[in-house]
């Protein structure tokens, strides 16, 4: 069986989804409603062809050449080496009325003829036809449209060109299924959110005879590029890694965790606001930076100034670690990013920079990136599986409502993580104190004790076991000191 040759699209991550690019010398359909990005992707395809010295042709039935050049200029692109053939669908002439054909069929035939004449004149290797919706509008009879499209397909195959046909899914009638005629189909969608930027996604519906990555993939159109974020398949990624536990450089904390946190583990850090969850994550980032290992810290909730101020107050040299590229910090705006883009950012830090730890602060804000929480949780599960396969420690921070009493978990995500660290406030001797406990550690042993947790100017500290309280983890602590125990025993 002859191997299918692939053509680069000019969008590297789209080529990843297509397992190398678009099959050469075939017809492909990009469909989507107006504004989804069809023309932008098509222009990028031709610009890449011009770079490779391919002859490129853009057949414009719905836009003028001036409009196309303006679109390219908005992305700082030049259309040098790309021929543009501007075709206005032909209106029926009164002389055509004596034909046995309906006027609409005469118009359709003449328009197809103009398209084929333009292709014969320029003899291109890459062709964009924008859009077939204009051709469909000329066809009152679906059968006439079908005949002309099949004739156009046979003509194009004889030209040995790779063709992108664009369809905005608006024209009627739709009696003929264009998807069944072409070799490949890519669907683009654009969804509005209640707040923030629109979410763009694409899906390869079919690619006849060629492999591709199925499912929906988020993408974004920025100033000079089209960024596609291939959906993550954790099983496709594996890496051998050192099994030695990661130390926090706080002996009491490592003791509580049974020797430290394992590489490739996912750790949920739970607690109310202000209890020290982010500080605990910073302790690990600071510790591995001192060992010349890297951390990627993705913050949904606070600025870099706040983070650096907190680290400085705990005598952590995070600012220096950031300058030395041992801590990568990025502020994530949940209203401006898609889940696919966020996962792609994590992957780049893991695969390109070899990070040891990934911090997500916090999962509450991450879940606000879209309303379909069930699908998003599946993506999070896939991300944690991927990090596990790559030997990366994942620290996932979750804020809980309440402070001293009635502390509630807004989401039950402990089932997708290996370890759960619980932080709590409690009151004693007229002061507010903090407590830490490990309530779950799937791989290996851990202490079942509840210890005091402190944030001092010398850093994170873990104190002795709390013996005089009960109900600390439930959020309703009660003092049961020596006198209380004696009274209860009477």
TrEMBL record:
TM spans (from-to): none
Keyword Transmembrane among record annotations: no
Pfam family for this entry, one: ATPase
PANTHER family, A to Z: CIRCADIAN CLOCK OSCILLATOR PROTEIN KAIC 1 (PTHR42926:SF1), PTHR42926
Residues annotated as domain KaiC: 5-242, 244-476
Protein name as it appears in the record: non-specific serine/threonine protein kinase
Keyword field contains Transmembrane helix: no
E.C. code: 2.7.11.1
Annotated keywords: Hydrolase, Kinase, Phosphoprotein, Repeat, Transferase
InterPro entries on file: AAA+_ATPase, Circadian_clock_KaiC-rel, KaiC, KaiC-like_dom, KaiC_dom, P-loop_NTPase
GO MF terms, alphabetically ordered: ATP binding; hydrolase activity; protein serine/threonine kinase activity
Domain of life: Bacteria
